[in-house]
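user:
I keep going back and forth on a fold encoding question. Separate attempts, laid side by side, tell us more than any discussion would. Would you put together a sequence-and-structure record for a protein of your own picking? Write it directly below this note and I will take it from there.

assistant:
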Amino acid sequence: MVPRILLGTAQVPDGGELRLLQRGAEFSIMLGANELMNSRLSGSEEALAEQACDRLGDRPGLRMLIGGLGMGFTLRAALARLGPDAEVAVAEIVPAVIEWARGPMAALHGDSLTDPRTRMVEGDVAAAIAEGDWDAILLDVDNGPDGLSRPGNDRLYGARGLVLARAALRPGGVLAIWSSAPSKPFSNRLVEAGFAVDEVIARATRKGGARHTIWFATKLSPA
């Protein structure tokens, strides 16, 4: 059996330690005993971007914010769908994750970080949301509304955070949120915040695997 090699560690704000591991050509990022992501399992992260783009259509000068770089699956899928005049800002709060993307996982990320449409933001996605004027906000910063890696992420998924996200979107904009599991209370919060909600099940790989939940919440126009 090919052994796992520890390539790096990083502290997460609010506590906890991320570990980057490699086994052959496979990478994984762990938080304690929980595997947050694996380079073999990209299906639902790609669906997050692809289905958001499908809902937005062909908008000139489209501005997208991605919360969480991870292994770059969502970023690469977005760049593959978007036109040359789009902007994709990626907010990543753990600097080491960006360093890993440019270092040991550079081949996995390809040219996505140097694409002229990409803007890396080292910091909390909440601050980037506050910039406003987004066509899409894609959040994959934790395991979903019941966060594992940062208690502070709760403010993104609470009622106040959803209202702020809605205010930051352009008319007809989309808030897309990835989760490892469904949550009826969270679906209700999205509706209460003024979104039209479409809850989608996406598989971990193109051929199957674990079932993940993605909420696509479209900003409704004022009555």
User: Anything to note?
Assistant: The longest strand covers residues 208-219.
